[in-house]
Amino acid sequence: MDELLEEDRQLLQEVKLALRDYWPHPILEFSGYMSTFYSGLWAVLPSMHGAGHFEVVTLSDGGEASLHWYVPPRAPSNRVLLVLPGLNNDSRTSFVQATMRHLRSEGFHAVALNYRGLANVALKTPRIACAACWVDVKEVAQHILRAKPGCELFGLGYSMGGAMLLRHLGAEGSNTPFKAAVSVAAPVDFPAVERSLTSSKKKLFINFLIAAGVKTLMMRELLRSKFRSMIDLRKLLLATRLAHMDEAVVCPLWGFANQAEFHSNCTPRSTVHQISVPTLVVHAEDDPVISLSTIPLEDLKRNPRIYVAITKRGGHIGWGSGGLGAGAWTDAMAAHFLEDGTWPARPDNRGFEPDAASFGDNFVGIGAERRKEAQCHFKRQYAMSWEVEQFKATRDGEETWAAILALQQGRLSPVAPGMSSGVAVSSLDEVSQLLGENAEVSVVGRTAFMVAAERALETQRMEALFRDPFAKDLSGEDGLDMSHRLGEAAAQFGFDGWPEFHKVWTVVRTKFIDDIMIDAKQQQLVNLGAGVDTRPYRLEAYQKFKASYEVDTMEVNAVKSAFFARSGATSFCPVANVCADFRRKGMLTQSLEEAGFEKKVASVFLIEGVLDFLESAAEAFLQEMSQLAAPGSLAVINYAIGPQRPGTFTAEQLQKLMADSGWGDFKIYVFGGDRLNYGRYKEGLAPHSDWAFAVCTKM
């Protein structure tokens, strides 16, 4: 640890704090029901800081809400946190106040939203406080930005407030003013929650208790307003479930035809795929109100901006601090997540789903096998979460971890003098183990290291076509093992008793690309599916490039970046490691632009061993690449011709696709032909036309 740069050491500590252990109180939090009951007590106790600064916000439809600033808005701070309380709560309840106090201590300017008609604000329109108030979040956020010009705005929502926050984020997409958000114990699928709350006697009793609280609140607000005549008071008095309250009060006042329409309008599930800012979703496995089974985990999983943390204990907003009092683990968790909330999105790597990292004895993770002690799991979607204790075991582990964390931040730091150099990177199986028992490193990732192993074998030959001094250490045993397995298919290609087909193909295509890069006149390189390509570090010709953008999956970039950081190798041009999922429309463009790619500069676009993995997304990927290419750019595309399936093309199909996207001077080179041979193709064997390169120029 002493050899780490200070910024990497700080980053290590930040992540440890963000993922720190939660120790539930042995009595007050031994079950979800007890945790929920205990948090409910705090909700009704007198607030600790009830004064603060209140201001009324007039909404566009004439309704009024209020903001409760923990300290006056003129107080210095450029980070504002908007807290959205749950159903039957407002800013004066103790757990909301405790949250505001904690976030204030972390440097956030905390302010809580009181919904329409709550906290002594008169009901000016029929729209009473309920989940449909998510439409007000945008206006309130804009009001805050006017009150605090230039501030960064963050969001934290509890239960219904969390659902409202998620619904806003999904509806607004990239237009939301929030920089990052945290949702705690929120209903994500309203119809599923409704079904759950009527599924057993216990659930019906919970339903009754919540409805009773809502009834009391609504009676108090409605009976003193002019809108009481719009509802059937008898239905309100007889209501025993939330569904009854919705039908009797919410629907007529908000103009919904029925509860189904109300739920359709408010449920976050319909738009979570559009959330575009880092968002942490926290839930407890033993939540008796919003059962874990109602959370659409697969929907959340598909959005790379959504992070999910599931604890074994905690009930419904019942996470304590391990002792007595209103402090909560979720307050600290939210603060640290929001501090790191500008981390870039990570691609969904096919076949690579890090289940999570272990940090204690009280958590379970999404999809994780339930371990005997139910270990702590925190799942960062499409990012790398690493097991602290396992990495602390070795110095190299700490170096690797620091490099990967810096990579997540998009700022891999140079390694301090004295660090180990030339250290072989461990196998991807070790990476998989660090990610969790059920994690699986993608096949695409493994082939990258297999190709490195085959380059290493060529480097050892006396008459080598190229020298790659990094390949052996990069590939490790994992890559070599996968390369040997491909030898089983050699016979069908006529390579019996001779170097396996794929090894020869790797050597020939590597030399072919080397020659093109040496002769290239373009000023930028975009290596799409770069794997563990080492050309920026071994080809002096790369000095002509303004930058080499190495685009691949997170796990491959992580290991590759850590290796070169430790080895002390110097690249011949600036190297930007870019993470992108080529199957996600627009992600390549966004990731390259964020990395500094200049669209007006002619570039070489290299696609080596990628297209057939993309299958049905291959055409859209080539079209997106074409939109990034300035006139004079060169495309070098390794592709498979057959058998015909998504991701493969005939020469005619590929030529037409590229021509339609503005490319010309189209040339095809097949394996074993004059240009793709170098004396390594088996003498007397016909060229293998199913393995080829296409080279063309953007007109």
TrEMBL record:
A molecular function GO annotation: monoacylglycerol lipase activity
Domain of life of the source: Eukaryota
Keywords per UniProt: Methyltransferase, Transferase
Serine aminopeptidase S33 domain boundaries: 78-291
Record carries keyword Kinase: no
GO annotation terms (biological process): medium-chain fatty acid biosynthetic process; medium-chain fatty acid catabolic process; methylation
Pfam families listed in its UniProt record: Hydrolase_4, LCM
UniProt keyword annotation of Transferase present: yes
Similarity remark: Belongs to the UPF0677 family. Belongs to the AB hydrolase superfamily. AB hydrolase 4 family.
PANTHER family with a match to the protein in the record: ABHYDROLASE DOMAIN-CONTAINING PROTEIN, ALPHA_BETA HYDROLASE 1, ISOFORM A
Designated name of the protein: Serine aminopeptidase S33 domain-containing protein
